[in-house]
Amino acid sequence: MTDSLNKVLRIGQLYDFYNALLTDKQQQCLNMHYLQDFSLAEIAEEFGVSRQAVHDILRRAELMLEEYEEKLGLVSRYRKERLIIDEIYKMVSNFPEPARKLPEINLVLEKLQYLLDDAREV
Predict the structure, then answer these.
(1) Which of 47, 65, 106, 108 is the most buried (most CB within 10 A)?
(2) Tens digits of residue pLDDT in 60-86
(3) H or E stretch including 121?
(4) Fold of the domain built from segment(s) 3-72
């Protein structure tokens, strides 16, 4: 992946976790630029400001998202927990056949699958 794509993915994930902590304008600008692929000029026109103003808003918002992650670590924790859940799911699903017939094991697998499916939406 290119650095540009990595940045878009990183900002997108940080936005998913921390957007409520940003101002409305920061949320709108990040959403339009990173999620809807608006150019700086298009966003500037939408808000009636200069491209430089949009650039400044985006830059400050990006820095704030990174600071929130540095302090709270929700994205990092989410990734680690997701890996652990995936490992547990694989371990349990590889239990020998008699164990996998137990209703409790099937219930565990269903709940783990729910967590994995739910995590993909974030």
Answers:
(1) 65
(2) 999 999 999 999 999 999 999 999 999
(3) none
(4) Arc Repressor Mutant, subunit A (1.10.10)
Tell me how far apart the alpha carbons of residues 105 and 93 are, in angstroms, rounded to a whole number: 9
Computed on alpha carbons and rounded to an integer, the radius of gyration of the chain in Å comes to: 20
> Would you say 89 and 109 are in contact if contact means Cβ atoms under 8 Å apart?
yes
Instruction: Quote the CA–CA distance of 43 and 25 in Å, as a whole number.
Output: 11
Measured over the CA atoms of residue 50, residue 52, residue 56 and residue 61, the dihedral's sign is positive
pLDDT tens per residue, range 104-117: 888 888 888 888 88
Any idea where the domains of the chain sit in the sequence?
3-72, 76-120
90-100: buried (b, 16+ CB within 10 Å) or exposed (e) per residue? eeeeeeeeeee
pTM of the shown model: 0.78
Half-sphere exposure of 84 (CA within 13 A, CB side): 6
List C-alpha distances in Å: 8 to 11, 35, 90, 108, 121. Answer: 5, 8, 30, 35, 17
